Amino acid sequence: MNIHTTFKRLLRRYGNTVIIRTNGRAKVAKAFVQPLRRRHRLYINDKVIPAGYFDNAYKLYIGDCEHRFSYGDHTVITCMGEDYTVVTGEEFCVGDDEVYIWAILSPKKDTKEDDYDVID
């Protein structure tokens, strides 16, 4: 049994049920979705988050490589009734085998007319 098969068995048994919506299509998958609790500097959207800052708003996603998504295609991931957008992520490989995809998720917020005028 290879590491990818073992990981898939762990996901099936212990993972959260998620819905991945990309380009008008939705698929149900299993993934680990947990609060991102990092105490050192973290760069999200090219902004430095101060050391020691965390509010559990961002989530760490670890899922199967079979359920791929891109980071700039407006993918929405629903977990436990909450919608998230993908900030960044990549595949994790062991040798030549892709084992899982990790991503950082941000709570999805509804865009209002006033949001278009916000300048960072």
Summarize the structure.
It is built from 1 helix and 8 strands. The chain is mainly β.
Mean pLDDT: 79
Q: By helix and strand content, what is the structural category? A: mainly beta
Q: How many individual helices?
A: 1
How are the strands ordered across the major sheet?
Answer: 1-2-5-8-7-6
Spatial extent as radius of gyration: 16 Å
Tell me, what's the shape?
A: globular
Percent of residues in beta strands: over 45%
The major beta sheet can be summarized as:
6 strands, antiparallel, barrel
Assigned CATH architecture: Beta Barrel
Total number of strands: 8
Descriptive account of the structure:
The protein is mainly beta and 120 residues long. It has one domain (3-108): Thrombin, subunit H, CATH 2.40.10. Helices cover 10% and strands 48% of the residues. It contains one helix and eight strands; from the N terminus they run αββββββββ. A six-stranded antiparallel barrel has the order 1-2-5-8-7-6. A two-stranded antiparallel sheet has the order 3-4. The longest helix has 12 residues, at 3-14. The model is unreliable at 115-120 (pLDDT under 50).
